[in-house]
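Thread: quick sanity check before group meeting

JM: Hey all, I'm pulling together slides for Thursday and realized we never actually wrote out the predicted structure for the chain we discussed last week. Dropping the sequence here so it's in one place. If anyone has concerns about the input, flag it before I start.
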Amino acid sequence: MNIKDLLDSKVNNISIDEEFTIPKEDYANTDIIDLQEVKVIGNLTYPSDDNLFLEADCSGIMKLNDSISLEPVDYKFSFKINENVYEKLEKDKFSLDIISILWENIVLEIPIRYSEVTDYKDLAGDGWRVISEDDVKDTNTNNPFKDLLNEIEKE
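JM (edit): ok, ran it. Output follows.
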């Protein structure tokens, strides 16, 4: 993003209302299968030397593997950026690499686990089955460690 006019004080701020594409090589070794364009709406201001502030609302959709079914699912994310990005400024080129700033924030949005599965009936195999948290509460009545758990809760 060219910000020469902002740095030369020809304008007070630069409004941003764009969609940015994160290169596939950036997320190749992550849990992200695909990343759609990231929508960025905000402002870039340069109040003084060594201060270049980016204030923006960002949103997008990443495709992840469902933690339970392992099927690809869409995961919507959004975050706000409110930081001094002066260090990211390429001074000789009068430009700002907004893609790297976005990527640093997107990495923080990747969930450890995400699932859209609500029906666990088909998720079973030979000697195992996936159960919901409600099923766990129901099975606690037949839990051989129930007395031990009650003792731990008392402490």
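AS: nice. The longest strand covers residues 51-65. Residues 31 and 64 are 6 Å apart (CA to CA).
JM: adding both to the slides.
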